[in-house]
Structure formats: structure tokens, C-alpha cells
Amino acid sequence: MMKTTRFLPLNSLATASFISCLAFACPTFGQTTEDLKLSAIDGGSGNGFGTATAIADGVLAIGAPGDDDNGPNSGSAYLFDAGSGIELSKLTPTDGATADKFGFSLAMSNDLIIVGAPYDDDNGADSGSVYFFDSNSGLQVFKIIASDGQPGDEFGFAVALDNGLVVIGAKRDDDNGRDSGSVYIFDANSGSQLAKLLPNDGAADDNFGEAVDIDGGIIAVGAHGNDDLGPLSGSAYLFNAQSGVQLAKLLATDGGTNDFFGSAIAIDGGVVAVGAWADSLFGDHSGSAYLFDVASGSQITKIVPSDGHDRDHFGYSISMDAGIVAIGADDDDDNGFNSGSAYLYDATNGTLIEKLGASDGDVYDEFGTSVAIANGVAVIGSPGDDDNGSNSGSAYLFNPFSLSQTGLPGGNMSFQVSGATPGGQVGVVYSFGSGAHVVTNPLTGNLITTGLSSTGFTLGTVGSADGEGDFEYSTYVPASAAGLVYVQAIDGTNDRTCNVLSL
Known about the structure:
Elements: E1 2-4, E2 36-38, E3 52-56, E4 59-64, E5 76-81, E6 87-91, E7 105-109, E8 112-117, E9 129-134, E10 140-144, E11 155-162, E12 165-170, E13 182-187, E14 193-197, E15 211-215, E16 218-223, E17 235-240, E18 246-250, E19 264-268, E20 271-276, E21 288-293, E22 299-303, E23 314-321, E24 324-329, E25 341-346, E26 352-356, E27 370-374, E28 377-382, E29 394-398, E30 402-406, E31 411-418, E32 425-431, E33 438-440, E34 447-449, E35 458-464, E36 471-477, E37 486-491, E38 496-497, E39 501-502
Parallel strand pairs: 1-36
Antiparallel strand pairs: 2-29, 3-4, 4-5, 5-6, 7-8, 8-9, 9-10, 11-12, 12-13, 13-14, 15-16, 16-17, 17-18, 19-20, 20-21, 21-22, 23-24, 24-25, 25-26, 27-28, 28-29, 30-31, 31-36, 32-35, 32-37, 33-34, 37-38, 37-39
């Protein structure tokens, strides 16, 4: 990674000046294609490799719930090195059985992988289970089931992991009526069940727990069947992970019948992203997504792609990390009918960063069925790809133009840029707020729109990316910058901007 310490220092905040420089061109919809394509060494027809994806600590996990190693549709999951794309290991449960669909859901963090098998039968037909694996050894650590599990609960339909807590959705649990749904919290170290969550207003057919995520001690849960704004309009809930107390219920300000709001959910850095893949804006089921503020529960913005079309299913899958939200549109038709696509947006304001597509995309690939992003690397599942037979599946790795940070205000901070033009110039800019400040990029002479406000808009540094498109900028940042300064990077070759970070 190319490094620099040449800068107009962020600790000179009192003298920050307005500089017309660097930012973001109005987006076009030519797709960015993958850096790597992944498939299983032993892939086969119907495996659905790519149905679920996860990424952490340089390792990718890919679910293949249709794999037949332990019987038809018993399922498996695979681990890959995120840098090289080399397959590291294949995961199967010690007691796998026909139709378990192990690998249907995935989460990972700190060398631990959580794998859902929602159609396991330990508590009755399709009651569901979840497995813990060590990502280094590939060995199974625990199997867990709900203490009160019942047939048809689908425990493990959705899973999430953060800071030692595992969150598991059982969307067809019947505690508040048939298929009302529930969510369980387990200790990641012991496998012990800690709590069961139910919404204050749960009702039959809500499917509470169809989507789950956790970040910073807050659990986000989707319930696409909730009917507050009409049948299947959907909702989402926030809970305190320690106390289990419901903090907020989220509804789209323009929600309506059959939107399926809450069918996908992600939470990171004080923002919740909620998918509504059946929202019908460009014809039937074109789809949308919404951003909410965690602290207030208020809607920040609604995201709709300007190239949306009938039945794209935009919002079918969602992942978020470091200010970037990845959104799948598994039935987009850019590469043929239901070939699929994915989009990257700035999580602070909903501005498009890039649209992603497969270089070899084809009809019915359903690229975007699953998405995962971490540290600027995105992995997109395409379970309908046919490289190893019909619906054998694949996954694609992208290293999009993105910005991440290490350190905290009050000390030295480092800003890491990835996905820039190799060998090209990169600029890092900051201001005292997010916004849409229009300026001239002195590197290209083009008028562009940043994701920052005009207040204190300042060029921090300009340098050259290395041969892999990486660039790093380090500086001391005073404690007073916390919550005040927003930072963005710019690719000087083509006017691209990345996500905006709040210090």
C-alpha cells in the first residue's frame, strides 16, 4: 500500500479554508466488473453456491445449501482467501442430513463462522439449527438449537454475529400467532442461549426474524409481513442486545401494501439499511431501500436506482460496513433476464458509488441474491450461475473504490483508500459536514459533486496509488474533530469518489 504523510493537517481545523477541488461525477450506469470469480472445486448442479455470503478478516464464506454431500439439499459452506480467491476449506456439519440446507445463512467475525441450517429437524420438521465453526481449522465447534424450538420455526433462517453475540432469526415461530417469528441471542463463546426477542406488537404472519443484524450493541430485525401500512408492507425493529428491550419500530414514510420492507436488513455505524425488494416504483417489484438513524429511529433517505426496472428486486439483499451499503438486485436484466446486479451507496446520504455486475453474467444467474462487504471488499453471490452445472452457483469479489480509517480523534489516524486507479493520483478531502458541494477537480478540470458540505471544505493531501490501487494517508487528528469532520477520497483519474466517513 502506498503511504504518505504529506498533508494540510486536519489538526489545523481553525484555519481550514475552502478549496475548490476533487470529488464526484454524476453517476453513470456502466457496470464495474469483478476482480475475482469464485466457484467450488467440487461444485455441482443445484448446489446454489452463493445463496449466502460473508466476509471478515480476509476470509470469505460462501453458502451452498443445495449441496448433496450428506444427502440431497443437505448443504455446505466454503471458505476462500479474500486476497487470492484460493479455496481454503469446505464446511459440512457432523450430523448433516437431507434437506437441512446447511449454508442457507452465514455470519463471521474474529475467526468464528456461524452457519444456518433452517430446515434441520432436531426439534421437529424444519425446526432449524445453527452451527459454529472455527475459520482457521474449519472444524465444527458447536451446534445450537432453540430451547423452545418447534416444527416449522426455521431457526437459522437469518444469522448475525458481533462482539461475542450471535443473533438468530426464526421467522416462522408461532409465539405471537402462526408464523409471527422470533429472534434468539446466544453467547458466541459458550453457545449458551441468552435471550429470546419478540416485538411488542407481534402478530401472525409477520415473519419477524426473516432478516437480522447486530452492531454496537443494537440488534436490527426485519418483519416483512407486518401490515401496519397495508398487507405485507413490512417493518423493522431495533433492540438493545444486552437488555433485550425494544428500542424502536421502523416504518417507511411512504410504505405500502406488498412492499416487503424488512426482508433484508443491515446495521453499522449508527445507520440501519432496510430492503423493500417488492416496492413497485418502476413497475411491479422494482424495489427500494431505506436508511434510518439508529439513535432517533428517523428515516434518513430512500434509495432508488435511477436505472431501476420492473421486477429488478432492488433491495433483495443488503450489507453495510465503513460507510458503504451494498444492495443486491437479483433479477436485474442488464446481462439478460434475471441476470442480476448490485449497487454500492454512501451510507450517510444514499449517493451512488458504483454499480456492480458480472463480466460473464447471463440469464437467470441471480447475481445479487446475497451481498457482503467488509473493509472495502464486496462479495456478491450468484447462485443461478451454471459454470459447474445448472444452478451450481458462483460468487464474485470486488475491490471497489472505498475509504476506511484506523485510530480515533485525539491521536494519530490513518485513512486507507482501496480500489483507486493503479498508479493514479488520489486526493483526500474533508469538511465540517456531509452534503453535495459542487467544485472543480483540478486534476481533471471537471465539475463534480462531492459527498461533503461546503463548510470548511479542504484538501488534505494528494498522492499516488500503488500498483494495486491502494493509498494511505496518516495524520494527527484532535479530539475536537470527533463528530465534526467528514472525510472523502477522490480518484483523480476519473473523478470517482468513495464513501464519506464521519470521524
